[in-house]
Design a protein that fits this description.
Elements (H helix, E strand, L loop, with lengths): L17 H11 L4 H8 L3 H9 L6 H11 L3 H22 L3 H16 L7 H27 L1
């Protein structure tokens, strides 16, 4: 993976896996994995997968977490959605040069920073991401053709 410095230290926008938020809540409340599994009717494998980021939070898991922690299911689903979107955008930008990737990331950050006043912010993010994916795909094709 290519490391990119987009913003000065301390200002980096990072997508946090929802499992990290769950782990913090568990720690704050002194809950063990076994207790959360029992309270939420989750298997240890499911909880471990959510905590380590290998399993996404499903609507069913989000509902169970709402019952246990009092946080709305939509919060858990939004955290998962935001994380998934950031991962897709990151993967799309991976194939681009650092300069082009930074340009896309700056555009994405502008949309995120102004989303409160923009009801179409999700569509704007999707459009920028699609543009980056398209450019990355073209670069990939060019590299493949050069390699053959």
């Amino acid at each position: 993976m290519i490391e990119r410095q987009l913003y000065p230290a301390g200002e980096l926008d990072v997508a946090v896996p929802p499992g990290d938020t769950l782990a913090e809540l568990m720690e704050e409340r002194g809950l063990t994995r076994d207790a959360v599994c029992a309270d939420c009717c989750l298997t240890p494998a499911t909880l471990s997968g959510v905590l380590d980021g290998t399993l996404a939070i499903t609507p069913e898991v989000a509902q169970q977490l709402e019952c246990r922690f009092g946080t709305p299911a939509r919060l858990w689903l939004n955290l998962q959605n935001d994380y998934d979107r950031a991962r897709v955008q990151s993967d799309s930008l991976e194939a681009l040069s650092n300069e082009r990737a930074n340009e896309y990331l700056v555009r994405l950050k502008r949309v995120m920073d102004g989303r409160e006043g923009n009801p179409d912010w999700k569509q704007d993010l999707d459009a920028i991401s699609a543009e980056a994916k398209e450019e990355a795909a073209k670069l990939g094709q060019q590299r493949d053709e050069e390699g053959n």
